[in-house]
Structures are given as C-alpha cells and as structure tokens.
Amino acid sequence: MQTKIDSLIGGAMRPSRGSKTHTQAISTIDTHFRHAAIWAIGTYTTLVISCYYITSPEQIVRLEGVEQNSAVMAMALISLSMVSRIIQMGGHVDRGKKLNLSGVFIGGLTVQIIALFTDTLLAFFPTPLVIDPVLGTRVHVLRWCEWCPCAAYMTFMMEGSDLYWSGKYPPRGYLLSKYIHAAMQGGAVFLGLCFPFCPGFRTWLTCMIVACILYLTNYPRMNRRKQEI
Asked: Which of 10, 94, 97, 219 is the most buried (most CB within 10 A)?
C-alpha cells in the first residue's frame, strides 16, 4: 500500500509540460548528456589504446573475408545515417536558424561516431583478435571497446528520458543514482572485455559472475521505474 501511495505522489510531482520546472529538468539533463558524450568518447579512446598496448603483436591481425565484409557493410550503413544527420543540420543553417544541437542529438551522434570508428578499424586496419582461454572463441576486442561506453551512455540516456522533480533543483542523489545504474551496465560489458585476457578459469568465472550480477540490476530498476509512472 505504501508503495502505491509513493507512486501516486511521485506521479503528482511530475511538472506539466512547458512549466518552469519542466524546462529546468530538460536543461539539466541536456547538459549532462553533453558531458557524458565527452566521457564516452574519452573512455572508448582509452580502451582502444590500452587493448592495442596489452595485446601481443602476433594477435593484432587484419580481418579478411566475411569478417571484413561485414565490418565494411556496417560502416557503410552508419555512414549513410550520419550523412542524413549532417544534411539535416545543414538545412537548419540554410534557413538562418541558430545551430543549437540538443544533448539527445549529440548523444545519438556520439554512439554513431564510436560505432563508425570501430567498423573502420575492423575493416581496413590490423586489430586485436584474441582467443578466449575458456571458450576457445575468437574475440574481436574492439567490439567490446565499442560496447562498453555505448552501453553505459545509452543506459544513462534512457534513465534521463523521463527526468523530473518538483523543486528548482533535483533531489540529492537523484542524478547520481542514474549515473550509478549506467556505470553498472558499462561495468558488465567491461568485464566481458576482460574475458579473453583472463589468466585462467577462476578469474574468467569471477568476471562472468560479477558481470551477470551487474547486468541483473536492470530488473529491479525496471520495476522501480514502472512504479514511478
């Protein structure tokens, strides 16, 4: 009963669209989306450089055949999407409008840039290709470098899609909880990146268990968001 009451109160606290509080919430999350985009690109760059550094030279190879062709196709599709976005931006400039990109637009573009850069490396450059010590599978390490920041960033964007609060400023810890949940999903993927570099089964299994625990936090979070509606 208390949960239902809290849910009703939370729903009543939602500001009406166009109100001052609603505008403040949009402005706040827009700023956080912009800052998180810088973090995502920085994290991706750091992971890529680190993987090239720790991977032995004989495991850095150029892809061929189907693997290369699939990367080329993915790169082409993402390029077309990005070109359409650039054309859309140019249309606003031609009409004399001030170019003011939203945090959501920047977020989507950031994910596309990371994916495009990964596909370009996989298609035309030697990339780390490591054998998983437990499963024995070929691991394209750069894919995990791509998924790690993107998983965290897209989770954070999802968390911020219905941002609201009743006062001028968000409650203490409100935004922090969203960052923590996003970090958990990014952490789960990061542990997946660690799989092929694990020295043995015990380390690999520990990474797997912790990754699953971090991922499963999605379900209580989804239940809580459902109650907040």
From this structure: 10
